[in-house]
């Protein structure tokens, strides 16, 4: 009977430990970025009042944010050393993470700002060498003027290879010569290119002669 009670006690103890760790894990997932920023300012300035002035808040409001952060983590983050507030060992660890969190948030905001214009991202275009040299440059210049945040990347190749890349989603669109076909492709003719024959003046054929195309 005692063994059963002991086993039950150990099971409950393990469950309580698991619950505590589980609770702390989910607390970390809900960390308030404003609280983290306030904590870093308190440490940087060494007092609640200086941080409050920087944040345009009252001192009690800053103290409350720090208390809520400590309660959420179930850790003491700040201690007074002389006249200044210093981070505890746990607070120092948190500060290191805050620096990385700030960098990630800043990168995210910077990347998201490129979408503010409504058109942003990357577009991969495939084309032949002739179109790449003579047709695409003015088109790309017009695109960049209109959509500055659009990143256009161009690759060249033969028509069959380019169309296959579009079908496999390795390219977003293609600019190739017709005929071109594919079940999953939407093909739109853009322009007609006139072909002319050029001869040396000494070999110019008669105006009435017809030349076969081979």
Describe the protein in words:
One of its GO terms (molecular function) is DNA-binding transcription factor activity. Belongs to the LysR transcriptional regulatory family. This is Regulatory protein, LysR:LysR, substrate-binding. It comes from Pseudomonas savastanoi pv. glycinea (Pseudomonas syringae pv. glycinea). The chain has helices at 2-29, 33-45, 48-55, 59-73, 89-113, 129-134, 136-146, 159-167; strands at 78-81, 84-87, 121-127, 150-156, 173-175. Among the domains are: 31-110, Arc Repressor Mutant, subunit A (Orthogonal Bundle), CATH 1.10.10.10; 119-175, D-Maltodextrin-Binding Protein, domain 2 (3-Layer(aba) Sandwich), CATH 3.40.190.10. The chain is rod-shaped and about 105 Å long. The protein starts with a helix and ends in a 39-residue tail after the last strand. Strand 1 (78-81) and strand 2 (84-87) form a beta hairpin. The strands form two sheets. It has a three-stranded parallel beta sheet with strand order 4-3-5, with helices on both faces. It has a two-stranded antiparallel ribbon with strand order 1-2. With 214 residues, it is mainly alpha-helical. The mean pLDDT is 79. Helix content is 54%, strand content 12%.
Short description, anyone?
The protein has 214 residues and is mostly helical.
**CA-CA gap between termini:** 101 Å
CATH superfamily placement of the domain at 31-110? Winged helix-like DNA-binding domain superfamily/Winged helix DNA-binding domain
Order of helices and strands: HHHHEEHEHHEHE
Proportion in helices: 40-55%
Flag low-confidence runs: none
What is the name of the CATH class of the domain at 31-110? Mainly Alpha
The tally of beta strands, per DSSP, is 5
Q: What is the chains' assembly state?
A: single chain
Overall body shape: rod-shaped
Sheet-strand content, in percent, reads 5-15%
Q: Which structural class do you get from the secondary structure elements? A: mainly alpha
What is the CATH T-level topology of the domain at 31-110? Arc Repressor Mutant, subunit A
Which architecture of the domain at 31-110 would the CATH scheme give at its second level? Orthogonal Bundle
Q: Give average pLDDT, whole number.
A: 79
Number of helices: 8
Rg on CA atoms, Å: 34 Å
Domain HTH lysR-type: 31-88
Keywords: DNA-binding, Transcription, Transcription regulation
GO molecular function, one term: transcription cis-regulatory region binding
Organism: Pseudomonas savastanoi pv. glycinea
